[in-house]
Specification:
With 471 residues, this protein is of the alpha+beta class. The protein is 58% helix and 6% strand. The chain has three domains: 96 residues, no CATH class; 138 residues; 150 residues, no CATH class. The longest helix has 61 residues. It is flat.
């Protein structure tokens, strides 16, 4: 009996030991998996650093190159006189030279064809009016030297339809899968062709998939986020070119125009918030940035609809939250098609109050609060203000009943107030302070004030709306 117990005890001990070993191995395995996952997440930044060092090294090697000497040699056609560093520099900076001269150089030094092929893809955006000539030269590149492992000719890649050809060449169903496919083909993340190819991918996916899912992909993936004018973060990878980013933004705004329900989703609200805080800036700012100018050029209807939606949200927020006056809100809503931009300046105490009040609200309800500017003064009596800029005049409404509406010429408001507002440098923004500025008109909310306001706006070149809704 005792022998059996000893055997059972020994077996139990062995079993426990085996379990301990298995648990230790599992824990070690989890550590290895975790380490590999952490390394995988760091790879994009490592690659970015390596590619950045490559560009930096190329820039350093350009020191000592005499551009005037190089141009003289190229114009004479005596490419044999170029030194090895000079020849490499010419190929790297090919876009600023005549394609005919570069063809002579490549014929003299064929080992530079591969470098030139990569340059065509890296600087795809910089061809300018010489694109047809560079396409012809691209057709001479031996297929064995193609940088990409795909069935698309260099001539096609160099053409204006190159990005579309790449987007059509992958069967991937998500933006992440397309980006991974391009990388597997040999596309570098810092090549401008990559940004434009991904912009074409986004344009296609927005009509084939749920736009909210697409936006979530772009916002949450560190690499894909470079397609958006995202707020710059320390240590984050540099974004794609402004031109490529503008194409992506235009596509996504167009989707919100064609699918109104999508514009109400949390994903679009996040996208909208990142846009307004990003490198393009706020389209309602003092001056439209180059990024927004490109978006407006590509999708004017979608851009206008986006701008008007911001104004409408801001109107509702100010006249329903900062104060309660639906009559004024209805009046200004009828002018939205003529409003160029709007901005809300909240008294600091009012902003703090609304932050507490909206702390549990959804992202859509909170988004106008994230766009406000603040008058940094804790005076209890200080009021908030709402500004609407038209083609020639800016109207300023106040949250307290009894205050008149002030009208300023745009150049006066832009010079004396707008820069201070966007930098949150306003200490007080009330009627008393505004009287010290050159006022064009001042109109009170008394009697048939809507008619008085219409006449004032009309005298400033703002057309009357078809009708003024009343609530």
């Amino acid at each position: 009996m005792t022998g059996r117990l000893d055997d059972a005890t020994g077996l139990a001990q062995l079993t426990n030991k085996a379990r301990s070993i298995a648990a230790a191995m599992q824990a070690r395995g989890d550590e290895v998996v975790s380490s590999f996952e952490a390394l995988r997440k760091q790879l994009p930044r490592i690659e970015a650093r390596i590619e950045g060092q490559t560009v930096s090294g190329a820039t350093k090697r350009a020191v000592g190159i005499d551009p005037a000497r190089v141009r003289t040699i190229l114009e004479k056609g005596t490419v044999q006189a170029l030194t090895a560093p000079e020849a490499k520099w010419v190929v790297r900076e090919f876009a600023q030279f005549d394609p005919t001269n570069l063809k002579r150089l490549l014929a003299d030094r064929p080992f530079l064809w591969r470098r030139f092929a990569e340059g065509l893809l890296r600087r795809w955006e910089d061809y300018g009016s010489n694109r047809p000539a560079w396409m012809q030269l691209a057709a001479s590149i031996p297929s064995s030297l193609y940088p990409l492992r795909c069935d698309i000719s260099m001539m096609t890649l160099a053409s204006s339809s190159g990005p579309a050809a790449l987007a059509d060449g992958t069967r991937a169903k998500t933006a992440r899968e397309c980006y991974a496919a391009f990388r597997q083909w040999g596309m570098r993340r810092n090549w401008s062709l990559m940004g434009h190819a991904m912009a074409q991918v986004v344009a296609r996916l927005r009509t084939r998939t749920n736009p909210s899912s697409l936006i979530t992909e772009l916002l949450e993936d560190e690499e894909l986020r470079r397609l958006l004018p995202y707020p710059e973060q320390p240590g984050a990878s540099a974004g794609f070119s402004v031109v490529a980013q503008a194409s992506v933004v235009a596509s996504l705004l167009n989707a919100s125009l064609s699918q109104s329900s999508y514009a109400q989703t949390d994903a679009f609200v996040r996208f909208e918030s990142s846009l307004l805080r990003g490198s393009f800036g706020d389209p309602r700012g003092v001056q439209l940035s180059p990024g927004w100018e490109l978006v407006k050029e590509r999708e004017p209807t979608a851009y206008t609809a986006f701008l008007q939606s911001l104004v409408r949200e801001d109107l509702e927020f100010f006249f329903e939250k900062a104060m309660t006056n639906r009559e004024r809100r209805a009046f200004w809503e009828s002018y939205i098609p003529q409003v160029h931009r709007s901005l809300c300046v909240l008294a600091l105490l009012k902003k703090e109050q609304l932050e507490r009040r909206l702390s549990t609200a959804d992202a859509k309800a909170r988004s106008p609060l994230e766009r406000v500017y603040v008058a940094n003064n804790r005076r209890q009596e200080m009021v908030s203000a709402f500004c609407l800029q038209f083609a020639t005049v800016t109207a300023v409404e106040f949250s307290d009943t009894g205050h008149a509406c002030y009208f300023f010429k745009n150049e006066v408001f832009a010079k004396e107030w707008m820069p201070r507002i966007v930098r949150n440098e306003i200490k007080t923004f009330d009627a008393e302070t505004l009287r010290q500025t050159s006022i064009t008109k001042r109109t009170h909310h008394k009697g048939n004030w809507q008619e008085d306001f219409q006449q004032t706006l009309e005298s400033c070149g703002v057309r009357r709306p078809v009708r003024v809704p009343r609530r």
